[in-house]
Amino acid sequence: MRSSLVSGVLSQMGAVVVPPALPAIVQTGDPVLRQRAADVAPEAIGSPEMQRLIASMVEVMRAAPGVGLAAPQIGVSLRVIVVEDRADYQAKLDPEKRRELERTAVPLRVFVNPTLRLIGEARATFFEGCLSVAGYTALVERALEVELEGLDEKGEQQIWSTRGWAARILQHECDHLDGTLYLDRMLTRSFATVENLGNAAYQGNSIDNIRRLLHT
Length: 216
Ligand code: ZN
What we know:
Blueprint: H1 2-8, H2 48-63, E1 68-70, E2 80-85, H3 87-90, H4 95-101, E3 106-128, E4 136-151, E5 157-163, H5 165-177, E6 192-193, H6 194-197, H7 207-214
Antiparallel strand pairs: 1-2, 2-3, 3-4, 4-5, 4-6
The structure holds zinc ion.
Zinc ion binds next to helix 5.
């Protein structure tokens, strides 16, 4: 769709007008990932700049593809996150694994100035990754249930109570707003390349067995 759009948009000089490239995903080591991101003035949410920011975050997340993105990950130190876990992303997971992860489809949601509350004592430990730590993964313990309160893309107040994989995504993205990466929370001995995670030692093995294997 984009290429037909591009070829249709010719300037009067006959040069092709190329749409602006997507912002790059900032990788670990960039100080922007270690700062506390600033609150957004609620009255600014409707501004063209903020709407453009939200739109490019969604585009970057989908292009990666990822299930969540925080503004600092494209170098913008503001408290904005987007999440989306599409059914087609989960289609390759076997149903048993999906149940274990409590991974269900999450429609696109935008949170500005979110406040996260961990609900209850239940915790879950699974491998997670980050678009800003490309190529790696590790076991991270997260609360099973959370409640997230904040503003949506129109500046309206919203509350979302969720659990399982969605709750993990929200904890991960909100961490980004405080300059925290999963690296700070992981079981360090489980740190692995995504490639290794695909190896026989991990496949079909329970998290408990993997932990024994890695002595963690
Ligand atoms: Zn991340």
